[in-house]
Amino acid sequence: MVLIFFLRFNGVAGGALQYNFYEESCPQLEDIVSTGLHPIFLSDPTSAPALLRLLFHDCQGCDASILVDTVKANRLSEMTSAKNFGIRKRDLIGNLKTLVEDECPVQVSCADILVLAAREAVASSWGPLIKVPLGRRDSSAAPSYQLADSLLPPATTGVDEMLRIFTGKGMTVEESVAIMGSHTLGSTHCLNILNRLYKPEGVEAQGIVLMDPRFEAFLRLTCPKWSLISNITSVLNDVTPTVFDNHYYMKAMGGRGVLTIDAEMVIDPRTAQIVEHFATNQDDFFHAFSTAFLKLSSSGVLTGDQGVIRRKCNVID
């Protein structure tokens, strides 16, 4: 399924993202990215969810700042933030950049390559193929783990915070619920759900967040309290972790949501009917996800004369 939305996305510097941005400077760009990723997705299906998550963690500005390595002790990269725990496959964007540079030197930003890679991650997993506007520029400022700490939501995020974040990027409530459907791919580290499974003594759970008792027992077995393996052990987000589908919502409806937000959306009056609808109508989920993806990947971007085109994604020239 190809979903095309001809919208104009303004950047922060008087420029705008365009669907034909590289039509003259690098017309083969999308083919290079798709061809470069195809064998990787075949050999390592976990690459797709990793690239999609990478986009989420970069899109406080979608400027490829998450790809920059630490170069000085007082300039720690975003990857040193605890909220970027488990982020993988940054090197794939660098590899794609090398392929693009061979064909179109100093024309294409790492930020655009990252968005295209995330788009391919969804499409290659049997999700919608989303036509995305391009023209992002890369950040030229030193990376900041403090910024990542302050802007990225914690694993304990609930519906209130989720809606605040995504409606702040121009999404509707329906689109906000749809973008959470990214969790249909991949797995969740035990570290991110220990707080949900094990409350400190004397602390009662706040609110009513339903969980199937059998599923809770399974999670406790997989993620034992205080176990060192919680840092490396993970649980699948749904029963089809390599397929982009609506099973995430089905699982949440059955009380088997892994994260707090997965469970809260089922009972919150603002989101419950949307979750139920997506659980029974995959086409509507795909449509809402596609528009949400466009808004997420186009929010607060650098365009025009702002930012730079990095020659290497992990280094600020």
Automatic annotation (TrEMBL):
The keyword Iron applies. Ca(2+) 1 binds at residues 58, 61, 63, 65, 78. Keywords: Calcium, Disulfide bond, Heme, Hydrogen peroxide, Iron, Metal-binding, Oxidoreductase, Peroxidase, Secreted, Signal. SUPFAM superfamilies: Heme-dependent peroxidases. Transmembrane segments: none annotated. It catalyses: 2 a phenolic donor + H2O2 = 2 a phenolic radical donor + 2 H2O. Disulfide bonds join 26-104, 59-62, 110-313, 190-223. Its EC number is 1.11.1.7. One of its GO terms (molecular function) is metal ion binding. Residues 1-18 form the signal peptide. It is an enzyme of class 1 (oxidoreductase). Pfam families: peroxidase. Residues 16-317 form the Plant heme peroxidase family profile domain. GO terms for biological process: hydrogen peroxide catabolic process; response to oxidative stress. Substrate binds at residue 153. Removal of H(2)O(2), oxidation of toxic reductants, biosynthesis and degradation of lignin, suberization, auxin catabolism, response to environmental stresses such as wounding, pathogen attack and oxidative stress. These functions might be dependent on each isozyme/isoform in each plant tissue. This is Peroxidase.
